[in-house]
Amino acid sequence: MRTATTIEASGMPHWRAGRDFVVEAEKIGLDICWVAEAWGSDAPSALGYYAACTDRMLLGSGIFQVGTRTPIAIAQAAITLSNLSEGRFLLGLGASGPQVIEGLHGVSFARPLARLRETVEIVRRVFDGGKISYSGREFQIPWPGGEAVPMRLSMRAEHPIPIYLATLSPAMLRLTGEIADGWLGTSFVPEGAGSAYFGYLDEGLARSGRSRADLDVCQGAEVAFAPDEDALREMVAARKKELAFSLGGMGSASTNFYNQAYSRQGWADIASEVRERWQAGDRDGAAGLVTDEMVLATTLIGTETMVRQRLRVWRDAGVTTVRLYPAGDTLDARLATLARAIEIVREIGRSQSGQ
After folding, report:
1. How many CB atoms lie within 10 A of CB 229?
2. CB contact at 8 A, 15 and 42
3. What phi, psi does 321 have (nearest 5°)?
4. Are 248 and 331 in a shared domain?
5. Residues 78 and 124 in one domain
6. What are the φ/ψ torsions at residue 157 (nearest 5 degrees)?
């Protein structure tokens, strides 16, 4: 497995902290750093900055929200970042959700599947370097009825740019298998991933005549090491409100892809009640419904032995890149956690290859 992490630049205590984290993460051997934008800082600006500060590590957008930029603007940013990083850029795209797209950006969230598919189609045409002429349900280039003619960008992609999709719903997972180079997943329980995720991904892969070997499965979770069982109980209890927010506060009252993902993995009743309580303003009550099992099954939190065992389970389930969110109250602590996790992943890889 390769190792990765995700940061959101404005989520750091200051801008230098983000830079320092990325630079040090490269030194300790991290393979990929994904940069999120969510509802904070934009990803392209931070990615350009981090590209100038690093030499080896791959950098990816995790994610560009397709409803907030035209496909051409996405392609321009991707080519720019790929060229200036000398081929170290991965383009991660996703539909986001109605709260961010409609509530923050004032753009309709209708037909996200068609928008994502057409965006990828147009972006790949731009990468190929030709003039862009496209007629779809969501996008028409050039705009019909005007005097414009098809154009091409004045710059070219100097390196291949893999496209990853961040998806959770069955239809979006099928699309990912069909058209993407990689999947950015979350809310992942390896024991239930076959029916919740991989079945749909495999359907999409079959549509395009591909197999699982053609898709980088990049799955993420928090990693934290507990020195003993008492510390582990405290860690798990502290994460319950965070999980309750994902189940109840992400998306809108009726559309929450995280909630749906947990429901498909055996927690439908709990996920439904957590959402109801969270939406009603009972945040503590919602967190109180989250079980220890839900936290431990979808994270890499535990003693070192537990984390090593879970990483083996992730590998055996089909994860090819593990995205680590290291715990820690300080930059040094997060880096120490990350370094420890990277070494465990390497050990697992060496044992698998018989070295």
Report:
1. 10
2. no
3. -135, 120
4. no
5. yes
6. -75, 120
